[in-house]
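Re: the request from the purification team.
They wanted to know what the chain is likely to look like in 3D before they choose a buffer screen. I agreed to run a prediction and write the result into the notebook, where they can find it.
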Amino acid sequence: MNKINHNFKKNYVGLARGFFSLPIISIFSRLSEKERILDKNFFLKRSLFKIFDKNALEIILNYLESVNLIKKLTKEKYFITAFGRYVFNRHGAMNIIYSYKDIVDNLEKILIGKQKKIKCDRIENIYGSGKSHKRKFFDNALSIIKKNKITKIIDLGLGNGDFIRNVLKKKPNLKFVGVDLSKNVINQLKKDLGNSKNMIVSDIFKINQWLKKLKKNNLNDDDKLLINFMFTLHEHNFNDDNKVKNFLNDIRSSFPNATILITEVFEIQPKTFSTVVDNSILPEFILFHKFSKQKLFFYKQFKKIIKTSDYFISTEITYSKIKIGNFTSPSYATIFLKPKK
């Protein structure tokens, strides 16, 4: 078999395998989280009996071994391979993709127009987002908070709440407010953090609604207040760039001296992805964002929106850069905005 055919077959197997490997790795990782087996060099099969059906577990472990993620040492003892360590350390991104399994389950209905709305599995999505964001983005966000001596945060779109938890570990005296549309997320954080008045159930894009509730919290809008958007700005289907600019300016009107921290994923043209397809799962991210009618921005487009708003970029950290002709676009970026004078 020549090299070209070998590469074609390798890519083909990867595409075909994803149908099964994605849910198996995603669910296995999430359900085994409490046992922390992915943090250990070795694990025992019996440690998972209280979580999984024994027969199903045997089948899953055999599969994970066959794709070189784990290796069986004895009848009971397994260890995670180097490749498995790489995959499991990044499994949060796989949970995010799997959370949009409704697209796969109902793709025919979607394609012929019988289903217009996409359901997102919030458990998988929130769990995966928390894992992915913590690994890749939290440290840089925390460094910006520390450098700018932020003392107050409004977190818009809480995910699983891990960002606020990590901030409070570093700055326990920091004042915070969390706003999220999910009552389940809010209720869980109320239990975890023990400060119910700082948790608001509301649509983050309806500023006036959560602002009314916020006023009861006596959170002053000074220059040490930061408003955080971590992969939430794209969730609103902005159909015009001016509406994004106006949304940012509405925040400026409500909080004249506050800074903004935005972490976002960016759209990349298909012809560009075709040259780096083996190194990125962003095509899958773009697929489910588009089907679920979320607004993805191109990097240059997003920078232009900010330039026309009432803010300027003070700090920018980019990730996973992809070369597009003579221009290099990040797949993700953390952007710290300050109000213009």
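For the purification team: Strands lie at 42-44, 70-72, 77-80, 152-156, 175-180, 199-201, 225-230, 259-265, 311-324, 327-339.
Please add any questions underneath this entry.
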